[in-house]
Amino acid sequence: xxxxxxxxxxxxxxxxISTYVHWDGSPEGxxxxxxxxxxxxxxxxxxxxxxYISSLYPSIQQTKEESAHNEEPIKxxxxxxxxxxxxxxxxxxxxxxxxxxxxxxxxGDLDSDQVGYWLFKxxxxxxxxxxxxxxxxxxxxxxxxxYKEGI
Length: 151
What we know:
The protein is α/β, with parallel strands linked by helices. It has one domain (about 5-150). The protein has 6 helices and 7 strands. It has helices spanning about 25-35, 40-50, 60-65, 80-85, 125-130, 140-150; strands spanning about 5-10, 15-20, 50-55, 75, 90-100, 115-120, 140. Strands 1, 2, 3, 4, 5, 6 and 7 form a 7-stranded mixed beta sheet that branches. Helix 1 (about 25-35) crosses helix 6.
């Protein structure tokens, strides 16, 4: 059974470009790979423009070669439009926010030399925690650190 996810990047004008990932969408799979291999703005942009991929690999080339589909990325006016378009079966979303875009409560926590950061959420959990929109996402690095520590 697959763990479906979307990876996306927020552009400076708040629009979103997203790619569907069919397999291994959990923080331990896609999340770990994003932090390890796609943590800068250039690589995050490139991976989010792939469109539809079967799995996420350490390189763009391998990700493309192993993909069963060749579809265009999905473009959205803003984060709320992105969330509205999520279809049934999507378990996780990952959003790369370039640091120049800023982001609410996290903006002050960012190192000045950081070029961006990944946020994530388990899709069903936003309905439970009462948060919505981009405020419903959490820093991916914290989730991965918790996973590694067994918390």
